[in-house]
Design brief:
Belongs to the radical SAM superfamily. MqnE family. By secondary structure, the protein is α/β, with parallel strands linked by helices. The chain is built from 16 helices and twelve strands. Strands 5-6-7-8 form a four-stranded parallel sheet. Strand 2, helix 5 and strand 3 form a beta-alpha-beta unit. It binds ligand V47. Ligand V47 binds next to strand 6 and strand 7.
């Protein structure tokens, strides 16, 4: 039995939540059945209260953010995923591929904000050679040596490996040597095959995504992990996804942050589907925090959730709100109406008004301090 003061503050009419609350407050691991019960509970506030306990236990009142810029070198993509409004076939209207100079110029615009991270992801281009991507990264590192390069999803890495006829390990080693510092969490979607066949049938499967992440972690690259929800998956599929991520994290410890991504159906072949709601978004953040007990961070990606829901998520398990995100394309092509970027001042105001303490971080969660003219990452 929980006998401390905290347990008395937990209230719910949902009897199924009580044994789960006991476990959370005793810091015991939740089972897949517990995770399913959380999804099935109508008491979102009680689930959120528990997630907030777990969040505050790890991070207290801190909420992390960073100053970052997205660079999407190409939207040409062979995969034609039904979930996606960003990818285009080569040569069709709206398709683009940046020349290297153009990509480096894009990186430089907005640099005056003292960006600490470039988030570099793009389509699976059928003709661009591996050298293009190595040169892109080398050129970014040369021009912006102090900026962390979080580049290429597991899906892109696997595609580059296939095209270059290299092993995943050698591909990752070459990318690392060129200057990749860590990997973003995209492309995980939902691991189970039945769902992948509908939303992204030409992408690597769930096991390949996980094994690519495992290899990245083994060679010393940290990564994030996403889960795309709110399309054709069911609650069991989401639980399966979370449990697989948790198992890999037990093995490697290489994941930094879990990022649940709400599906935006506009301009995709799945645009007949309902959009997620505020309550389901908040609940997904909370369940992620509770099940992924070995993930240091849970991110409320404001571009996807909207700033208002992301702010609420900071009291439902999330400890990170992502960053200034200059020039987001993937969600905006899928109908997002959020702004293209936010200033540091706007972000910190959102965080403070959620009753949290903002802490600017670099990509590896080291605090960043700024004065008028200098920028220091505290190692
Ligand atoms: O992998 C694509 C998703 C992801 C849609 O690691 C869509 O810090 C919703 O991974 N509706 C890319 N989602 C974004 C991503 C990400 C974002 C922010 C931070 C980090 C990080 C990673 O976006 C894709 C896919 O799962 N996506 N299309 C859509 N229509």
């Amino acid at each position: 039995m929980i006998s401390n003061k905290v347990s008395h503050a937990f209230q719910t009419d949902d009897a199924r939540l009580k044994p789960i609350a006991e476990k959370v407050l005793a810091r015991e691991r939740l089972t897949p059945e517990d995770a399913l019960a959380l999804y099935r509970s109508p008491d979102v506030l009680a689930v959120g209260w528990l997630a907030n306990q777990a969040r505050e236990r790890i991070h207290g009142n801190i909420t992390y953010f960073n100053v970052n810029r997205h660079i999407n070198p190409t939207n040409v993509c062979v995969a034609a995923c039904r979930l996606c409004a960003f990818g285009r076939k080569q040569g069709v209207e709206g398709s683009y591929t940046m020349a290297l100079d153009e990509a480096w110029e894009t990186a430089a615009s907005g640099y005056s904000e003292a960006v600490t991270e470039f988030h570099v992801v793009g389509g699976l281009h059928p003709d661009l050679p591996f050298e293009y991507f190595l040169d892109l990264i080398r050129g970014l590192k040369e021009r912006f040596p102090q900026v962390h390069l979080k580049a290429f999803t597991m899906v892109e890495v696997a595609y580059l490996a296939k095209r270059a006829k290299l092993s995943i390990r050698d591909t990752l080693l070459q990318l690392k040597q060129a200057g990749v510092d860590s990997l973003p969490g995209g492309g995980a979607e939902i691991f189970i095959d039945r769902v992948r066949r509908v939303i992204c049938d030409h992408k690597i499967d769930g096991d390949e995504w996980l094994s690519t992440a495992r290899t990245a972690h083994q060679i010393g690259l940290k990564s994030n992990a996403t889960m795309l929800y709110g399309h054709v998956e069911n609650e069991e599929d989401r639980v399966d996804h979370l449990i697989k991520l948790r198992a890999l994290q037990d093995e490697t410890g290489g994941f930094q942050t879990f990022i649940p991504l709400a599906f935006h159906p506009d301009n995709t072949p799945l645009q007949h589907l309902w959009k997620t709601t505020g309550m389901s978004d908040i609940k997904q953040i909370a369940i992620g925090r509770l099940v992924l007990d070995n993930f240091p961070h849970v991110k409320a990606y404001w571009q996807m959730l909207t700033p208002k829901i992301a702010q609420i998520a900071l009291r439902f398990g999330a400890d990170d709100i992502d960053g200034t995100v200059i020039e987001e394309k993937i969600y905006h092509d899928a109908g997002a109406t959020t702004p293209q970027g936010m200033t540091r001042q706007e972000l910190t105001r959102l965080i403070r008004e959620a009753g949290r303490e903002p802490l600017e971080r670099d990509t590896l969660y080291r605090p960043v301090t700024r004065s008028e003219t200098t920028l220091t990452v505290n190692v």
